[in-house]
Design a protein that fits this description.
CATH class of the largest domain in chain A: Alpha Beta
CATH topology of the largest domain in chain A: Carbamate kinase
Number of domains of chain A: 2
Oligomer: homodimer
Structural class of chain A: alpha/beta
Distance between the termini of chain A: 32 Å
Shape of chain A: globular
Strand order of the largest sheet of chain A: 3-6-2-1-9-11-12-10
CATH architecture of the largest domain in chain A: 3-Layer(aba) Sandwich
Number of strands of chain A: 18
Helix content of chain A: 25-40%
Number of helices of chain A: 14
Strand content of chain A: 25-35%
Largest interface: A-B, 41 and 41 residues
């Protein structure tokens, strides 16, 4: 009997009625002849409320304690869902991350899964039960509870699917699937029937809101197809997988964007080896996540080095970079904190000419100035004024509409 | 360094400020040169809210799932208290029942502690940490979470104290200690400085509201002194222990009462062996808890057999008893559901004459009719009209005032 792993996010289990709705969906999947493993998040805003409580008693709660605290939210949901299934006549059992064998390192609040020992899950499946596992949590070798950080429940679901050899990992959420662009910005954006793992990973912040990149990476690694769909209707959703057909792979599949971009330009950097390391190693040590990096090739002996960070990290980044810039003899550091990012994404894009030209053309026609350009194998990104991002996304979505529609 | 186990109930940890107050009390105990292990209940009404949630999704939630659900309440408190201690510069670590080695049987929702493996607790104490343990919960051999039922957190505390060889188990709550009578009924009731285990056990429902009898029994078994005191002030509270001095042991220590008493009298029972078993075995099998049992010695061949149950179990008890009464040839079954119970308690009471006479005299003076009388080694109980219980408690408290004061 095939195994299906389903994951339901916080909004899908926000109250008793929504939990019953999820129970009915699970029973339908089981009645169709599948063994079902379910991973759940904490109900609604539970996690935020627990975090609030923690900050009421301590300014800097220890990560170990915060992890134990937050892990209770998912446990609550597992038990309620098991009860709802029982009430509908379906055998079910709740398991904590520890009971489900989610073994992690001891990096509290951002633990990585080391191993999934799914013996207990398998045992319960063999008894005929639906197995409900608390997402977002695991256990260390010392039997301490950990949480997996951002995207934790998605990651739990895909890791379990990989460990169990599941046919598919279904991520149920409050959106219809992955769209060709963020539907809040582009009303005409349509859900994609399928998308490749890498394209999904390139969708940046919009994509991460749908399924966390960690889970997508894990899916790619173990070749687990991931279906993203709404828990509130029966629309087909989007299948993220590796088998996307060649024709589709050559198309632009989506337009991604990010509104939270700040830029630092170190102007007049001496063009010699070791300069990039001198800047980016200290930034990494300070815990600052650098996104885009662009360095213009120099024909003189000096060059400009530009990189982007999130707006909230700009000041901290400048504290690190300004003294370094002085010590390496750069002319100045310039910042701009009102930027955004817009990208077109499609596997194999670089093998097909003309995409970049069309992208720049569409932005030019909309009179949107491009500040920085970076590209990857499957993505072309422009950094532009934040105020123009929405317009840019719509313009690009329209410019590449034909391809999107053909999917 | 002596080990002290402290237990804080739900009202003592109901919000962030109360948790900080508890943290300060713990630090004072630690600064006085003790190793401190703390057992906590769920915050305020958390448990009730979780039970509500369960009944929103299922009419009859499975005990296994209910136990996992409820166990999260205590875990939340442990982490918040650990964070509050950290914020005050005190090393502390939270442990679940499982981590603290509370091994139980698999009787979900009313599990019994089989063993306490306190290795982890000892390890953390040796590191200099305050160890905070989630009360009310344990783990089975199959690694399933259980709850201990009523009095669970008190029982966890005393069991840990026994396992660790603690000097004392301190139960902090929202009352000042054990009083000579229920202070809500007898305003002049005063807190007792000390009381024996058995007297405490005889205090029935009032005593059980202060410390659960399971915990008192366990304390007696392992000879762990139990201090009951308020977490909101520094009053000394009441020490429950086995070393109460001989003089004190001969006094009436308290007046207990119970307002929830219903009586069934099987009238005209043939006086032959096996009759009591024929009635009480089926009652036990039906899960009905019988309290007082009185059978008048018969001089004819028939006798009356009277017993009491809680009011809510009266109908169910009658369903069991009525057909049995017919089959054994009893004349009839009579019930009275508006009764109450009043007792005087004092160790060694039966070795000192006159107590019963003074009790009956005091009730007679107050014109209170006695329906049933039962006695034990350390207790004399009268069943009376419910409406007169309050008056009876006050009359008895006054009649035995001298003894109480001498303590």
């Amino acid at each position: 009997m095939p195994i299906i792993v389903q994951k339901y996010g916080g909004t899908s289990v926000a109250d008793a009625d929504k939990i019953k709705n999820v129970a009915r969906r699970i029973i339908r999947t089981r009645d169709a002849g599948n063994q079902v493993v379910v991973v759940v998040s904490a109900m609604g805003h539970t996690t935020d409320e627990l975090v609030d409580l923690a900050y009421q008693v301590a300014e800097k709660p220890a990560h170990r304690e915060l992890d134990v605290l937050l892990s209770t939210g998912e446990v609550v949901t597992t038990t309620l869902l098991a009860m709802a299934l029982h009430a509908m006549g379906c055998p079910a059992i709740s398991l904590s991350g520890a009971q489900a064998g989610i073994r992690t390192d001891a990096a509290f609040s951002r633990a990585r899964i080391l191993e999934v020992n799914s013996a207990r899950v398998v045992k319960e499946l063999e008894k005929g039960s639906v197995v409900i596992v608390a997402g977002f949590q695991g256990i260390t070798a010392d039997m301490d509870t950990t949480t997996l950080g951002r995207g934790g429940s998605d990651t739990t679901a895909v890791a379990l699917a990989a460990s169990l050899g599941a046919a598919v990992c279904q991520i149920y959420t409050d959106v219809e699937g992955v769209h060709s662009a963020d539907p809040r910005l582009v009303p005409e954006a349509r859900p994609l029937a399928e998308i490749g793992y890498e394209e999904m990973l390139e969708m940046a912040s919009y994509g991460a809101k749908v399924v966390h990149p960690r889970a997508v990476e894990l899916g790619e690694l173990f070749n687990i197809p991931i279906l993203v769909a709404s828990s509130f209707n029966d629309n087909p959703g989007t299948l993220i997988h590796g088998g996307v057909s060649m024709e589709v792979r050559n198309k632009v599949s989506s337009v991604a964007h990010d509104l939270d971009v700040a830029k630092i330009t170190v102007v007049g950097v001496p063009d010699r080896p070791g300069i990039a390391a001198a800047i980016f190693v200290p930034l990494a040590e300070a815990g600052i996540s650098v996104d885009t990096i662009v360095q213009n090739a120099s024909i003189t002996n000096v060059t400009d080095l530009t990189f982007t960070v999130t707006r909230s990290q700009l000041d901290k980044a400048m504290e690190v970079v300004a003294p370094i810039a002085r010590s390496i003899g750069a002319r100045e550091c310039a910042t701009d904190s009102s930027l955004g990012k817009v990208s077109i994404i499609g596997t194999g894009m670089q093998n097909t000419p003309g995409y970049a030209a069309r992208m720049f053309g569409a932005l030019s026609q909309a009179k949107i100035n491009i500040q920085l350009i970076t590209t990857s194998e499957i993505r072309i990104t422009c950094i532009i004024e934040e105020a123009r991002v929405e317009e840019a996304v719509r313009a690009l979505h329209q410019a590449f509409e034909i391809e999107v529609q053909e999917k």
